[in-house]
Amino acid sequence: xxxxxxxxSEIFYSLQGESRTVGLPTIFIxxxxxxxxxxxxxxxxxxxGGETRSIADILEQLSQYKTHYITVTGGxxxxxxxxxxxxxxxxxxxxxxxxETSGAIDISSVDARVVKVMDLKTPASAEEQRxxxxxLQYLTVTDQLKFVICNAExxxxxxxxxxxxxxxxxxxxxxxxSMGEQDPAELAEWxxxxxxxxxxxxxxxxxxxxxxxxx
Length: 215
Hints:
By secondary structure, this protein is of the alpha/beta class. Helix content is 23%, strand content 24%. The chain contains five helices and nine strands, in the order βββαβαβββαβαβα.
């Protein structure tokens, strides 16, 4: 594949369902492929297939939308090396760009203008061993670190990681209950009980539309 080509599962326009820009109309560029297999994954259709497209072609499609916000997601976007060039060109066009990444691939070369929304995989994700902890040093105050909480053990593990790496000083921290596994109200109560400096979030798009691809 040429360096300016990417395998794309879908490009769609919707409301941002998570993170700091939740609720804002956003263009989503979903790249194909992911080396992880998290047990709660809701985008397994993006593991394969898709369409090979040039960055120029992608940028042309984006021009039909009026929103200033773009999220590059997957799959795992950074599994395709040309993703870095896509992010750079999007930032050059003055979009507010965010990157959703698993945290399993080096983020050091991501354009500094891009907001990184990175996971730390909890034990119940079944992919904890894939966490690349060296990535934490590249997160800044404009970035966000997400923990998907599946149970009480995940919550305790996440609290320990925040303390171990002093993450509250480094970036915004997001706690999300895994839908169908962790009761959201219970997670909210734990956060308040322990007075954690984290942002509790639900997946707005699932509340509105359920598990519908392209929403």
